[in-house]
Design a protein that fits this description.
Layout lengths: L16 H12 L2 H9 L15 H7 L3 H9 L15 H8 L2 H9 L14 H7 L3 H8 L4 H5 L15 H12 L5 H9 L7 H20 L5 H23 L3 H10 L9 H12 L7 H10 L10 H10 L20 E3 L6 E2 L2 H27 L18 E3 L2
Antiparallel strand pairs: 1-2, 1-3
The chain binds zinc ion (ZN) (2 copies).
One zinc ion binds next to loops.
């Protein structure tokens, strides 16, 4: 048998013995063997099995993250589209439900708008099989290089629109899938480079440019445009507070969290998000019209909140009920409860402490509500606090 030419384009099902072995090794996830085979010279990294699947597609579908990494390092083509039904590695990653691999494919340059033989994109396929985390990752992906374009002077500019040191922190905010404004202000606050009037001004202007770009590009991406606009609004709000006083971001956090009398509903936050949506500069966008239609008839304080409508539109997360969200920052997987009322959950003691100034006003009423409800329902046995968290308010329920 002749050694395969690495540059010749592979034919479906035309596999050397080593390549057949390679496909088995990929599926089983044996990294050492895979490395040996790849270094042996008889394996083309983009070889195709009878269905037109590459080793990378197999690894993605089986959820083998390390294997995907190894194959990409060896030059696996992330956009190979030879599969009999037009599936790409990104589609297989989405189907597998592995969001780490999905992100890896995107970082490696996977195209998000390729469609399979029935016209579905990777995000649509992942949604179809209920892999909402992967949908979120795909819909919110924005490559760092697209942002870094603005860190180089363009045309006659003497200075770039975005100082290179701001690209990292800003990209982190762009990639967040938690659109809670409290969380976004926290992301600004945690980076000293961003807690600066001049830096915030540059960042929000770049966000506005990106928003415009997403609207005007050939395949208009309204979802990303709305997200860019929303981030710009949050940054502008931070800027407005910072211009008054250096420690004003804390004041902004409190405004966003402050609950109104009676039910503790965070009115300021609701109005802020509604305003952001209304200020979207491209009024002909269908997404904007949908959002306004969903939000306008809802009285402030009722469901759905502007936050949940926006999150659903931008991240594709429909099943918000299956996860627990921090009452302060909206992070998923919150598992700490206010130990007094046991009605509010947090991701950690920092968030709980930040919320207490407003929660304390309704905590007692919530306690009474719970007692009334529990009188008629059998009690769940509480797992004793493991003592890992010493907060006076929090107890952990696992
Ligand atoms: Zn939190
Ligand atoms: Zn409470």
């Amino acid at each position: 048998m002749t050694a395969p030419q690495s540059r010749a384009s592979p034919k479906k099902g035309d596999l050397t013995a080593a390549e057949k072995e390679m496909l088995q090794v990929v599926v089983s996830g044996n990294i050492q063997e895979a490395l040996k085979l790849l270094s042996g010279g008889d394996v083309r990294v983009n070889c195709l099995d009878e269905c037109g699947m590459t080793p990378l597609m197999h690894a993605a579908y089986k959820g083998k993250a390390d294997m995907c990494q190894l194959l990409l390092q060896h030059g696996a083509d992330v956009n190979c589209n030879e599969h009999e039904y037009g599936y790409t590695a990104l589609m297989f990653a989405g189907l597998s439900g592995n969001s780490e691999i999905t992100r890896m494919m995107l970082d490696a340059g996977a195209e998000t708008d390729l469609v399979n033989s029935v016209g579905r994109t990777a995000a649509q396929m992942a949604a179809f099989v209920g892999q909402h985390d992967c949908v979120t990752v795909i819909n919110n992906f924005f490559s760092r290089s697209r942002l870094e374009y603005y860190t180089r002077p363009q045309g006659l500019e003497r200075e770039p629109k975005l100082p290179p040191k701001l690209a990292g922190p800003l990209h982190k905010i762009i990639m967040t899938t938690n659109l809670n404004p409290v969380k976004m202000v926290m992301l600004v606050k945690e980076n000293p480079l961003l807690v600066d009037v001049a830096a915030l001004e540059k960042c929000y202007r770049v966000m506005d440019l990106l928003c415009e770009q997403c609207v005007k590009q050939q395949d208009m991406n309204e979802v990303l445009a709305m997200k860019m606009h929303y981030i710009s609004c949050v940054l502008q709000k931070c800027l407005a507070f910072l211009q008054e006083r250096d420690d004003k971001l804390d004041a902004l956090l409190k405004s966003l969290l402050k609950g109104r009398d009676g039910d503790g509903f965070p009115q300021y936050q609701e109005k802020f998000i509604r305003d952001c949506i209304r200020k979207f500069p491209y009024c002909e966008a269908t997404l904007l019209q949908q959002l306004v239609r969903s939000i306008a008839p809802v009285e402030i304080g009722n469901d759905p909140t502007a936050f949940s409508v926006l999150t659903q539109a931008l991240t594709g997360q429909m099943a918000l009920m299956d996860a627990e969200f921090c009452a302060t920052c909206g992070e998923r997987g919150a598992d700490k409860r206010c130990s007094l009322c046991k009605m509010v959950i947090y991701c950690g003691s920092a968030c709980q402490r930040l919320h207490w100034f407003t929660h304390k006003r309704i905590c007692k009423a919530l306690q009474e509500q719970r007692v009334c409800r529990e009188r008629d329902t059998p009690r769940l046995r509480e797992v004793p606090d493991n003592g890992a968290n010493q907060s006076i308010f929090i107890s952990t329920f696992k």
